[in-house]
Amino acid sequence: MAGKEDLKLLGMLVSPFAIRVRMALSMKGVSYEYEEEDLFNKSDLLLSSNPVHKMVPVLIHNGKPLCESLVIVQYVDELFAGPAILPIDSYKRATARFWAAFVDDKLCPAWIGILKETKTEDERAEKVKEAHAAIMQIEEAFAKLSEGKAFFGGDSIGYLDIVLGSCLFWFEAFRWMFDLEIIKSSEAPLLAAWAERFGETAEAKKVVPEADEAVQYAYNLRAAYAAAAAAAATR
């Protein structure tokens, strides 16, 4: 267990990656200072703390910055006492890490692409197809990893629940914005039921924003992308 800590988290309300870290810290019962970042006007602290990607989240622990949400959540789990976030069993631990990486490598680029895409409906449709394909693979993984229990982590949420669950409010935002279901109950009934349970957990209710927050940010973001594309086209 760590001693007296100086923890500051640089995040953003609608960043699922920052939400992962907030959930992990909350599960461990750790106090920290939270600083909201504006990604259209990044702070000097963010730029100096994460000079490679210049993105949130960044956890600054006793003056030392840590970047990338999957890395930070594992760090928090190892450092602080409290409920285990990653599985204790070595095989299950490695498997959870594999699927967390899958979420970030396959699912996240697809749904972020749906949000960013401003060119053609065909391009958005391709991203939707990629997202649904990833969801179907995660549906199969849940059937195996949950072992018939409520969550990927068993009877309570764990590492993979946090990783995927942090994206759910954006999926709801897409339903509002595009009439689009990322997790279809007719195709992925296990994940659909899991998503309902996840949303009702105390951990999710404490830090996950409402979908309308994401919708508003999405409209601002899409306007910024469109303006940038228009400016680039005139050069």
UniProtKB/TrEMBL annotation:
PANTHER family: GLUTATHIONE S-TRANSFERASE, GLUTATHIONE S-TRANSFERASE, GST, SUPERFAMILY, GST DOMAIN CONTAINING. Is involved in the conjugation of reduced glutathione to a wide number of exogenous and endogenous hydrophobic electrophiles. It catalyses: RX + glutathione = an S-substituted glutathione + a halide anion + H(+). It is an enzyme of class 2 (transferase). Residues 5-84 form the GST N-terminal domain. Transmembrane segments: none annotated. The lineage of its organism: Eukaryota, Viridiplantae, Streptophyta, Embryophyta, Tracheophyta. The keyword Cytoplasm applies. This is Glutathione S-transferase. Belongs to the GST superfamily. Its EC number is 2.5.1.18. Keywords: Cytoplasm, Transferase. GO terms for cellular component: cytosol. GO terms for molecular function: glutathione transferase activity. One of its GO terms (biological process) is toxin catabolic process. Residues 89-221 form the GST C-terminal domain. It is found in: Cytoplasm, Cytosol. It comes from the Eukaryota.
